[in-house]
Design brief:
single chain, eight-stranded parallel β-sheet, 9 helices, TIM Barrel, 15% strand, alpha/beta
């Protein structure tokens, strides 16, 4: 059951462009724009600005709340992307989207140089899959700019103990970095890192045990969309994981998740709206 008595470190979150998210009343949706050539989901649009803008517009039309732009693939085994290349990719895409779409934009990066250029181009949230642990200077940039940040726990290369204990330990380290840099806790969202260093069974366990992270009192984000664990369970290719993704999104909302990161805007917007109507008693119900 959704934790209706849930407490948050802060009641609201400044997403950018004058948009304020009010935690606990509905689930927010982050739409993915991959400015890469080697995205695991096969939807990379590196260098194709028209396609990036069209995708962002479709997200806006379907009711998505924020656009997440990334310029480096984080799939297992992906070749490292030079920082200069990543920066060039995201800046062009963010500038193009910012000019034609009214939604806030987040930048998916682990590097200060990329994030700084992205913020200058119009982004207002930093989404770091290393939780500020790969490039700690990124926390200082976030503090100085007063922008929001998503801190993900990344289990890759780490020893496994208990999934929730491991995730919590990672969060504590990231939050310590934030505290040292002077990042406002009200500007933080935590992501348990579904698909990053976990087996299929561990990913499913994370979903089952999401309510155990609520005590941290930070808003929670999760990105399950089209990931390989869904493909393994269903025996499906990337393009055939829409309903599997829908199941994970609906479950995550019931388990207390506040933001879902997705590829399919209109479809997942319906899943979110229906799930919110059930667990948060929100919606146009006669």
């Amino acid at each position: 059951m959704w934790p209706i008595d849930r407490e948050y470190t802060a009641a609201t979150f400044e997403a950018g462009r004058g948009v304020i998210w009010d935690w606990g009343h509905r689930t927010y949706v982050m739409g993915i724009v991959n400015a890469t050539q080697d995205s695991f989901s096969g939807d990379g649009i590196a260098g194709e600005l028209d396609k990036a803008v069209a995708l962002a517009k479709s997200f806006e039309a379907s009711g998505v709340d924020i656009i997440d732009v990334g310029g480096a693939s984080s799939r297992p085994g992906a070749d490292p992307t030079p920082v200069s290349v990543e920066k060039s990719r995201v800046v062009r895409v963010i500038e193009a989207i910012n000019a034609e779409v009214g939604l806030p934009i987040s930048v998916d990066t682990t590097w200060t140089a990329v994030a700084e250029a992205a913020l200058d181009a119009g982004a207002s949230v930093v989404n770091d899959i290393s939780g500020f642990q790969l490039d700690p200077d990124l926390s200082c940039l976030v503090a100085d700019r007063g922008v929001g940040a998503v801190l993900m726990h990344n289990q890759r290369g780490l020893e496994h103990h208990d999934v929730i204990d491991d995730i919590t330990s990672g969060f504590i380290t990231s939050l310590s970095v934030c505290d040292s840099a002077g990042v406002d806790p009200a500007r933080l969202i935590l992501d348990p890192g579904f698909g990053f260093g976990w087996s299929v069974s561990q990913n499913l366990e994370i979903l089952r045990r999401l309510p155990e992270l609520v005590h941290l009192k930070f808003p929670l984000l999760i990105g399950t969309s089209k990931k390989s664990s869904i493909g393994t369970v269903l025996g499906s290719r990337v393009g055939e994981r829409l309903f599997g993704t829908a199941a994970t999104v609906a479950h995550a909302i019931c388990a207390g998740i506040d933001v879902v990161r997705i590829h399919d805007g209109s479809e997942m917007r319906d899943v979110v709206t229906m799930s919110d109507a059930i667990v948060r008693q929100r919606g146009s119900i006669g």
